[in-house]
Specification:
The chain contains 11 helices and 23 strands. The chain has about 450 residues and is α/β, with parallel strands linked by helices. The chain folds into 3 domains: about 35 residues; about 210 residues, Rossmann fold (3-Layer(aba) Sandwich); about 170 residues, Ribosomal Protein S5, domain 2. The protein has a 9-stranded mixed beta sheet. The longest helix is centred in the middle third of the chain and has 18 residues. It starts with a strand and ends with a helix.
Length: about 450
C-alpha cells in the first residue's frame, strides 16, 4: 500500500509548521514566508539501512586551523586571527556603512601579499568598483573583478583559476535555478548561500558573503542563512559619525566578544589605535551626572563616559530615556538606588547617555552608571580623576568583575589617579590608588556629600 503524503506549510524565517496556509506567520510575524512542503507519512517498524559505528572523540587527530591574515588588524581581531580555509563569513550592515569599502581594502591587502583574489558583484558594475578602488588607492595586481548575476558560472571560474580568496556581493542579488522565487526571496537566499558554502568547502577558499539587513538591524533572509555560514559579522555606525563598529554575532573559529573599531574618511576605513580616546575626550566639564566606567570589549579595555541628567517632571509618569544602555537596566539600577541608598527619582525625568555611541553590555559598568545617576539626582559633581569598576546587585552590593588589573592598567594610562572597585576583588598591586567598597551607598559617603 502506498504511503500517504502529508502537506505542510513551513515558515522560511523561523521554521514554524502549519497544515493550512496563512499569509502571516503566527510565530515570528513575517508576511509571505509560509511555503508548501510535501512529506511522506512516517513509516512504522524498525529502521532499515546500513549501520555505522561512532568514532570516539579522543581518538581523532585534529590539526589547528591555519589562519590567513586579512591585512587589517581590527578585522583579524574580530575574526580570531584571520580567515580559515574553506570558512564562509557573512558580513551584514546598513546601506552606505562601508561594507564594500572594507572588503575592497581587504582584497587589496591580500592581493599585495600574493593571494589571488576574486570579487564577484551582482549589484555594481566593474566600472563602479574600479572607480572606488582608484579613489582609495587599491588598484593592485592580483585583484580580479567579476560583475554578473550568474552565480554558478562565477563559482566555476573561482574554482578553475585557483583563487585563494572570494567575495560575493551580495547574497540577495543572485539567483539559484534550483529554487523558486525571485532574487532576494527566502528560498533564493537559501539556495544561493548553499551554493556558495558548497563551493568554498569543496575548494578550500575563504569566502565572504555580503548580506542586507532589515529595519530591525537583523540580516535579511531566512534564519537558516546564519546557520549555514561559519562566521556572522555585523558592521554598524551612525550616519552622522565617521566611526564604524565591527562585531561577531557568530564565530565557529573564535570568540564573539571582540570589537573592531574603524574610522571612515575619504581614504577609506582606517583602524582606531586608541579607542578609549574615541569615547572619552579627557576634558573636565565640571558638571554633575558625569562618570567614567572602565568597560571591557573582548580583550580590550575602554573608558566609557556616562552622562546622566535628572530634572523635575510636570507629568504624573516620569520619563526614562537611555542611549547606549538598555532602558530596563536603567530602571533596575534606579530602583536599587532608591531602595538601598535612599536616592529617589520618582518625581524626575531621567536621561542616560553613553558618549560616542558606545553600547554598554558589560556588567562592570553598573557602578559607573549608578554613580552617574546618583550624581545627577544629588546635583553634585564627581571628581574627574576617579573611574568606576564593579557590578551592582539587587541588594546594593558591589561585586568584583573579570580582568580588573587590565582595566586599572588602562585607567592609569589615561591619567586617572583613583579607581573605585569591589572590596572582594583579589589583592594585587595596582599602578593607581584603589578605593574598595562593599555597598553602593558608600559612593554617597565618598563623593556626594555636600
Amino acid at each position: 500500500m502506498a504511503k500517504k503524503e502529508i502537506r505542510l506549510y513551513k515558515c522560511s524565517e523561523c521554521g514554524y509548521q502549519s497544515q493550512t496556509f496563512m499569509g502571516k506567520c503566527p510565530k515570528c510575524g513575517s508576511w509571505g514566508t509560509l511555503e508548501q512542503e510535501t512529506q511522506p507519512a512516517a513509516a512504522h517498524g524498525p529502521i532499515s539501512g546500513p549501520v555505522r559505528a561512532a568514532v570516539p572523540i579522543s581518538g581523532l587527530d585534529v590539526e589547528e586551523q591555519e589562519r590567513i591574515p586579512s591585512g587589517i588588524d581590527e578585522l583579524d581581531r574580530v575574526l580570531g586571527g584571520g580567515w580559515v580555509r574553506g570558512g564562509v563569513t557573512l558580513l551584514g550592515g546598513e546601506p552606505g556603512v562601508g561594507k564594500s569599502t572594507l572588503l575592497l581594502q581587504v582584497c587589496a591587502e591580500m592581493a599585495k601579499r600574493g593571494t589571488r583574489v576574486i570579487y564577484i558583484s551582482g549589484e555594481e558594475s566593474s566600472g563602479q568598483l574600479a572607480l572606488r578602488g582608484r579613489r582609495l588607492g587599491l588598484m593592485t595586481p592580483g585583484l580580479d573583478l567579476l560583475c554578473e548575476s550568474d552565480l554558478p558560472s562565477s563559482l566555476a571560474a573561482a574554482e578553475k583559476y585557483g583563487y585563494g580568496f572570494m567575495v560575493i556581493d551580495s547574497v540577495q542579488a543572485f539567483r539559484a535555478d534550483s529554487e523558486s522565487g525571485w532574487a532576494g526571496s527566502p528560498n533564493q537566499v537559501k539556495g544561493v548561500a548553499a551554493m556558495a558554502v558548497d563551493a568554498a568547502k569543496r575548494c578550500s577558499i575563504p569566502t565572504v558573503l555580503v548580506g542586507h539587513i532589515t529595519k530591525q538591524g537583523q540580516i535579511a533572509g531566512p534564519k537558516l542563512l546564519e546557520h549555514l555560514v561559519d562566521v556572522v559579522l555585523l558592521f554598524s555606525g551612525e550616519q552622522n559619525s565617521p566611526n564604524r563598529l565591527l562585531r561577531a554575532e557568530k564565530n565557529r573559529y573564535g570568540s564573539t566578544e571582540e570589537l573592531g573599531i574603524f574610522e571612515m574618511s575619504d581614504k577609506g576605513l582606517s583602524a582606531v589605535n586608541d579607542p578609549s580616546r574615541l569615547y572619552w575626550n579627557g576634558t573636565d566639564l565640571g558638571s554633575s551626572g558625569v562618570s567614567i566606567a572602565m568597560t571591557l570589549e573582548g580583550s580590550r579595555a575602554l573608558a566609557a563616559e556616562i552622562q546622566a541628567l535628572a530634572c523635575p517632571t510636570p507629568f504624573p509618569y516620569p520619563k526614562r530615556t537611555a542611549r547606549g544602555v538598555d532602558v530596563n537596566r536603567l530602571q533596575l539600577l534606579l530602583a536599587v538606588l532608591e531602595r538601598r541608598c535612599g536616592i529617589s527619582s520618582r518625581a524626575s525625568d531621567v536621561y542616560l547617555n553613553v558618549a560616542g555611541g558606545l553600547t554598554l553590555k558589560d556588567p562592570a559598568a553598573d557602578l559607573g552608571i549608578c554613580a552617574s545617576l546618583a550624581s545627577a539626582a544629588a546635583d553634585v559633581e564627581l571628581p574627574a580623576d576617579v573611574c568606576f569598576i564593579g557590578e551592582v546587585g539587587l541588594a546594593g552590593e558591589v561585586r568584583p568583575c573579570a580582568r580588573t588589573p587590565l582595566r586599572i592598567k588602562e585607567a592609569a594610562r589615561l591619567g586617572f589617579r583613583r579607581a573605585v572597585i569591589s572590596r572582594r576583588t583579589p589583592k594585587e598591586t595596582y599602578p593607581i590608588e584603589t578605593l574598595k567598597i562593599s555597598a553602593l551607598r558608600e559612593i554617597i559617603d565618598l563623593f556626594l556629600k555636600r
